[in-house]
Amino acid sequence: MAVVGVETLSGWDNPVDLRSLVDPDHLRSKMSGAQTDSAAIALIRGIDSFEKGDLDDALEKVNAAIKQLRDYAPAYVVRGWIYLSKGDLKRALADCVSAIKLDPNDAHPYFTRAWIHSRQGRFDLSLADLSKAIEKQPDFAKAYSIRAALHRRNGDHNDAIADLDKAIELQPNYPMAYIFRAMVCREMGDLDSGIADLNRSIELKSDDPTAYMNRAALYRAKGDLATALADMNKAAELNMDIPQILLRRGGLYAEMGDLDSSIADYTKAVELQPDFAEAYIHRAEIYRAMGNPGRANEDMAKVALLNPPNYAPSIPLPDPYGKKKKMTMSAAGSWKGLIDGEKLIREIYEARKNSLRAYKP
Question: CA-CA distance, 245 to 317, in Å (whole number)?
Answer without folding.
Answer: 10
